[in-house]
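Dear colleague,

Thank you for sharing your sequence with our group. We've completed the structure prediction you requested, and as agreed, I am returning the results in plain text so they can be pasted directly into your records. Please verify that the sequence below matches your submission; if there's any discrepancy, let me know and we will rerun it promptly.
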Amino acid sequence: MKKKVVGAVLLSTIAASVTAASDESLFFSDLPVVATASRLPQRLADAPASVTVVDRDMIRASGARSLNDVLRLVPGFQTFAHSDVPARVNYHGVADDGDYSPRVQVLVDGRSLHSPLFAGGTHWGLMPVALEDIERIEVVRGSNTVAYGTNAFMGVINIVTLPPPLVRGVSVSANNGSQGVRDYTLRGGGRFGEHGNFRLTLQEVADDGLDDSWDWQDRFFNRRLDARLDYQLGTADLLELGFGRVEGRALRGRLDTDVVPFAIDPGDPVRTLRESSTWLQTRWLHTLDGGGDLSLCYAFNEDRGDASFVDPGRDPGYRRVDYLGDWGRRHELELTHNFRPFAATRLAWGGSWRHDAMSSETMLRDRGTVARQIRRLFANGEWRPARWLTVNLGASHENDSLSGNHLAPRASLALHLTPQNTVRIGYSQAWRTPSLLAYNANYKNRGVLPHRNDEIGNRRLDAEELATWEIGYLGDWRDWRMSLDVRHFRERLRDRILLLRPAASGIPTPRSEQNVQDIDIDGYEFQWRWQPFEPTRLVVNHAYLRASAGLSENGARIAATPGSNLANDVDGDYRALAEQSAPRRASSLLWMQQLPYGLEFSLARYWVGEVKWTRNTEVKKYRRTDARLAYPFRIAGQRGELAYTVQSLDGAHEEQRSAEVDEPNQRTVDRRHWISLRLDF
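Please find the predicted structure tokens below.
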């Protein structure tokens, strides 16, 4: 059946291509202009880093319902579908045993989504923006601490939303399909007074999750409100105001299958996790004479979680447990100045202040509210002394009240061999400071006797350090409607942090986060885009990397301590977690095709190698195919779209944990399909 469908589409492709007009396509009329790499609007050929741009058409064609699925189209990224744990997104692996990935900065219109409540990482189940509101996603593949601070350790995902002036009228849409898929979206936009424009989105996303089996269950629900208002204060001043809230519900816990099938495990019962994120963001943009501008931004975010339960097996006073509560808050203020100090030179510089705080009755027992202050200065400059050369230099200095001072430099040369061919050589140094929880944890299982799973903060933690050399090539062949971006990298990560027991004796000692590993990562990535015919677009991505790990100085000391996790690591699980946390090879293909009668077809194919997400979980290599067929229509003046989407067309596979003999059907991702209807008024 699948072969017949693909064959029919191929015939339609040929027919549509023959009759297509020969006008130049906007897709390859010019390379995109990006601002995420250096905070300066730049052509990709001038940027100091490799940047993948995922536009609205690619997002829609991917058939994704969640943002983490979209990032499968970016070389070097790994993700898995949400189940009884949140979806996760990593770049080049370096995974932890926790649920959140703190080493890639995630931004929405410049506001960081990293939260002190989620171990300094991003919760991919609480995305504050609907896919329908995204104009494009700029992904910096490689360290960018210079521009965006400590969490931009491995890269940056910058989500740029639709400006309110581009949203007019009302749009309603719904998805309904297998595995309980039921999504509803209401969007609207229009003028606000004489000089303002607004955009408002209400959305619910829900499904029954993956197939429940063995000792866990799965459900997912997400409700979001996202609003933005742009108001022109004068000819030189613009005010942007955004606010919103997202609420999520999911199942957590385990079933005690050793006692009675489907019995509740009293130490970790199946229960509903309720989470929310509320935010406010405002930005004032002032245009200066001579083409420069000033930008002043303030952002506030509050995240809350509650998955509390009572464990009757604990001592009195310790029975209420909530690993994922209670709250985390962030205030951030940033001033940026862009201008031209000299001829052929542009500079973006500024400073920011951030206040993070969190509270957790379970994980920060008797600590109350813990907080930190971060002050940062940054500068990124571009110099074009000749048509064949672009020089990028940058540096940032960050002062953290908990981790001290860190300086991050970057330098890059872009050699424009011809207008179509550019070679880039670059070096950068980055730092990732530990989370509030890493410094302040105080988790106890018992009131008197210590327990092996107790956790304590480590105030002597050092920041992780990353030094990166890279050489890149960018080809832009407009006559062939084709582009190629190749990046070869060597990353040297020092003092990688992991949670473990650093020592043990006759009495159990608590776990703490420790600097234990040095990791060397080498490899290459490429992304190739081609539009052979007007109605046909192809995007191919591939990544290859090889990682090798050894113990840091502190890690060697811990490994020599009897009873520590590293001393007991006879199977090398910690080393394997570093060296196998990204697939050796991973590829993706996105084919977008306009068919006769206004139909649109797209197919996404993924080839992913073996991945070890945590010490105790791994997934075998898998193949996945997603497809979408859509019919945009206009009937009696009414515009809309009817679409059919299928994910995992190949059938069942695992993305986060593979099946074992004693743990069958772990996290199985099976075929899911749904019908979508959108009406625009």
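Summary note from our side: Residues 84 and 218 are 5 Å apart (CA to CA).

Kind regards,
the structure core
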